[in-house]
Design a protein that fits this description.
By secondary structure, the chain is mostly helical. It has helices spanning 15-31, 45-55, 176-181, 185-208, 212-232, 236-249, 255-280, 289-300, 315-343, and strands spanning 57-58, 68-69. It has nine helices and two strands; from the N terminus they run H-H-E-E-H-H-H-H-H-H-H.
């Protein structure tokens, strides 16, 4: 059987340790006022909570009157179990959080510039609007479908050594339960718009570092969220167009779909032209299979040609017009897809 995860130690430090922590804080304020716990090894979640209580630090999103944000800048919090901790708005600049258990925690608007989160567990962590920079270390972090990234300021933090296939979607997506419970369409649309924004931020950051595969996967999720938002906003034309682009070209992320549609339409209409001229419409010269394919190709690209035996009212002409319209849409999608995939947006 798998070993159970140890629960975080929330007991208060003993008196001797309290005296030591107070002395370390006093020394830190004298030497480095902006980083009072610089280099200090904090041993348990209980110590973190006791320090916050003593210093009148709050980890809540909205600071209560008389409280200030937590400041563990450059402290040593590595390999601790801090599961469930609230460190919203916290100063964690340069903090050592290597292999720290942070699951089920909130780090909204926290400053993680230069922080070392190597191997940290961020399952179900809310990182909304957290600040990172190029010195932040995120290598080998764990995250899951409940981790939230809305508004994270990535600032060129290295994303190369992260397994982005850990989950196909992130926690900013609203759950079915939330959507069912929310009665107002405008709020449901906002949930989806926020999720799309979170994905977009990830896509931009990943693309900037050449991580095209995870970026492509997340962009498809972004477009799915936009589709749901359009439905809630009753923008049905945009909703249908979103579905069309997704089906035909995967929103530019799957150009192979466009080729498949192209070949499929040519094949289907080739069969139609052959059947109309050989089996249905006896007055029209029967086309060979090759001639039917050539006719389909020219009609698809809007350059159909007809013999003097085919009139405007002939079924062949009708289907040729339908194919020409379909061809126009497919060509436009293909050009847009090619431009994005190979020339950039």
């Amino acid at each position: 059987m798998a070993k159970e995860q140890e629960k975080p130690d929330i007991t208060e430090p003993i008196e001797e340790r309290k005296v030591e922590l107070n002395q370390l804080y006093t020394n830190g304020i004298k030497n480095t006022p902006d980083t009072p716990y610089k280099g200090v090894k904090i041993k348990t979640l209980g110590e973190v909570q006791w320090i916050m209580q003593q210093r009148k630090w709050s980890g809540e999103t909205n600071l209560p009157r008389g409280m200030s944000r937590a400041n563990f800048s450059r402290a040593q919090l590595s390999q601790l179990n801090l599961e469930g901790i609230q460190l919203n708005n916290a100063n964690l600049n340069g903090t050592n959080l290597r292999r720290t258990q942070l699951s089920n925690s909130c780090l909204v608007r926290s400053d993680l510039s230069g922080a070392n989160l190597y191997g940290a567990k961020l399952n179900n962590v809310n990182l909304a609007r957290a600040l990172m920079d190029i010195k932040t270390v995120l290598d080998k972090i764990e995250f899951d479908e409940k981790t939230k990234f809305l508004g994270v300021r990535w600032n060129n933090v290295s994303l190369n050594d992260i397994d982005w296939l850990q989950t196909s979607h992130i926690g900013d997506e609203p759950t079915k339960e939330i959507i069912i419970q929310e009665k107002m369409a405008v709020k449901r649309a906002k949930y989806y718009r926020d999720a799309a924004g979170a994905y977009h931020g990830l896509v931009v950051a990943l693309n900037d570092q050449g991580l095209s595969i995870p970026a492509s996967n997340y962009r498809l999720r972004e477009k799915d969220m936009e589709k749901e938002a359009l439905w809630e906003e009753h923008k049905f034309c945009g909703w249908l167009f979103n579905i069309f682009l997704g089906g035909v070209a995967g929103h530019g992320e799957k150009p192979g779909r466009t080729v498949t549609w192209y070949l499929g339409i040519i094949a289907v209409f080739s069969v139609i032209y052959w059947m109309l001229t050989n089996l249905v419409h006896g007055s029209v010269k029967a086309l060979s299979p090759l001639e039917a394919v050539i006719l389909s190709l020219t009609c698809f690209h809007g350059r159909g040609f007809f013999t003097n035996t085919i009139t405007i009212g002939d079924p062949v002409t009708t289907f040729a017009a339908i194919e020409a319209v379909l061809g126009l849409f497919i060509e436009l999608v293909f050009i847009a897809t090619f431009s994005k995939k190979f020339l950039g947006e």
